[in-house]
Amino acid sequence: MRLIITGVTGVAGLAAYRAAAVDSAVDAITLLTRRPVPAWAKLPPQAAEKTTTVLHQDFKSYSTDLAQQLAEHDGLVWALGKSSVGMSEEQYNELTYEYTMAAARALKDAGAGTSERPFRFVYISGEHADPTGQSRQAWARIKGRVERELPELFQGTNLKVHVYRPAYFFPSKDYPEDRKNQRSLPLRTLDTIFGPVLSMVAPAINTPVEDLGRFVVELAKGRWPDQVLFRNTDMQNLVKELPSTASAPAKKVEL
pTM to 2 decimals? Predict the structure, then answer.
């Protein structure tokens, strides 16, 4: 399988990249990113030989050549995004809606997928995203709009969308450099306090990031081919079906 991953410098994207790198079914990984994977990120030894990095600066525009290159893959994990805190609604809409839909249109126009092997577009959304557009929270309306419009865009094509709504997630304790570089000190403190509490008293709203990464890769592979929307509780139940993997953290490798 040939897989595209966006948002690899973020928490969810890096988790997906690590999961894909150790998955024997994933033969090639293309990172579509503005910046290379940072030097502090520890990666599995298999990552380097599997990975091609495409540095792309304008996520609202794709050349014909780039779109065709991407369409030759089998799936995509769209992990590009960040918290809406500190962003205007216009800025958040550009990042969350416009970037996602531009990529989806480019793949559609390039003819991604076949009837026998559809291209799977995995969109990482968020709990409480609102496809009805009625929420008072702008982020929920915007993510909900993406959830609503992606399946509409792909009707009659060989592309299939899977939407996953994670709950609260944060960098793994197995990767202290992730926490140091991906989270501010206040957020690291919050993670340290509330992470263990949520896992015990409210597991439905807790998303272990290793499970997140592995789950979205499995979606891209087509393990659950007919379901479109996956809530966090769905992930928690379905990930139990997967074979166990080694839990040792990855080593630092150069790409």
Answer: 0.91
